[in-house]
Amino acid sequence: MLASLPDGGRAEMSRAIAAAASAQSAWADTPAPVRGKILAAAGRLMLERIDLLAHLMTREQGKPLRESRTEIRYAASFLSWFAGEAERIYGRQIPSADPTKRLLVLKRPVGITAGVTPWNFPAAMITRKLGPALAAGCTMVVKPSELTPLSALEIARVFADAGLPTGVFSVVAGLDAADIVEPVMADMRVRKLSFTGSTTVGTALMAQAASTMKRLSLELGGHAPFLVFEDADLDIAVDAAVASKMRNMGQTCVAANRFYVHRAVVDRFAERLAQRLGELVVGNGLDDRTDVGPLISEPAVAKVEAHVADAIANGADLLTGGSRTVAGGPFFAPTVLRGVDPTMRISREETFGPVVAISTFESEQEAVALANSTPYGLAAYYFTRDVGRVLRLAERLEFGVIGANDGIPSTAQAPFGGIKASGIGHEGGAEGIAEYLDVKYLSIGSIEAAVD
Ligand code: SIN
């Protein structure tokens, strides 16, 4: 056993909201550079504690240590980026048609906010919400996944050590998510909820948020297409495929899931990718030689297994992997399937595992139609040397995050968010902090001219 924790519920969340309510106005009135300094200090502390935080993450979540370190750096980058953004919350003055009036646009923190975060990025999905919330002058209560509470609690310790006043950020960890979140949804004082998780839960939260008219950011499921054109640099495409597909063992919302490869290059692409994935070392994430750790749970492996079995039963060819590996744990071998078609489960559902499913196309038009043939709209990737095509596809693909010759586009400086069934709102970039700010319009009439 890794640790034992108290099982928080609605009572603890109500206390956290009350603490946030007591801290809210003082935090909103704290000068932005001071808020930024605390955020920057927390970011630095995360980096100083990277070994401790990364080990904890690997032990509670499974991802290899190298990846946990990368995630801690990614998590800290949201704090340093939004530390700077705190000082750039600008309003504006609008030239008035009426010369007696002054028209101003003001930005104010929305107030108390809540974050509900997933297990696949136990640190970065917290700081991606918390960074902009604190920078904007909001307080935040966080409910982390019941599978990864320890990383969240260590992040709370980082902020306390960085000098964040009591009540500005609280974590409530527990097993019953619906019970913990109930006071968040019912309380009018909580003005915003940011959720990362499944489309099913996101849809339910959206309905619940209506009664208090809460603002929402929903980062939901994806089913990312990965298009390889006949003019692509195949070395770049294969590297990007490995990076996107194998990050966190394929358990990311932005993971490339549906590979559409031009018929002229499919043999070379599939062969090289199968070779690369076949060489990866699967095992305990704490071992430095490990490239691929366990999946999060037994049901997660069972789903991957079912998708692969369904594809093979319906005619797909297995190039590598295809089964569980390392007896006794939820491990699945990196897998490449060829000859996948749109009727197979793997083409229709998010796999959330280390499986590359390859189909072919013959024209750009066909590739775009295949890519868009999903209710999801989170991430899309394509590989081409044609600059015109780079721009054309960015306009035609119905996705919020697009990587052209890039398998890992996510970064703190840029807006991350899906369209269609993948959610609403953005995290990261200038758009990320706007989600935590109310816009107020002030019209000042009848300012008397100065009299000497
Ligand atoms: C996610 O999969 O939910 C987030 C991935 C990212 O930030 O790149």
TrEMBL record:
Keyword Lipoprotein: no
Listed Pfam families: Aldedh
SUPFAM superfamilies found in the cross-reference section: ALDH-like (SSF53720)
Gene3D superfamilies (UniProt xref): Aldehyde Dehydrogenase, Chain A, domain 1, Aldehyde Dehydrogenase, Chain A, domain 2
Keyword terms of this UniProt record: Oxidoreductase
Domain Aldehyde dehydrogenase: 2-441
Entry-linked InterPro entries: Ald_DH/histidinol_DH (IPR016161), Ald_DH_C (IPR016163), Ald_DH_N (IPR016162), Aldehyde_DH_dom (IPR015590), Aldehyde_DH_Superfamily (IPR050740)
Protein name: NAD-dependent succinate-semialdehyde dehydrogenase
Organism of derivation: Actinoallomurus vinaceus
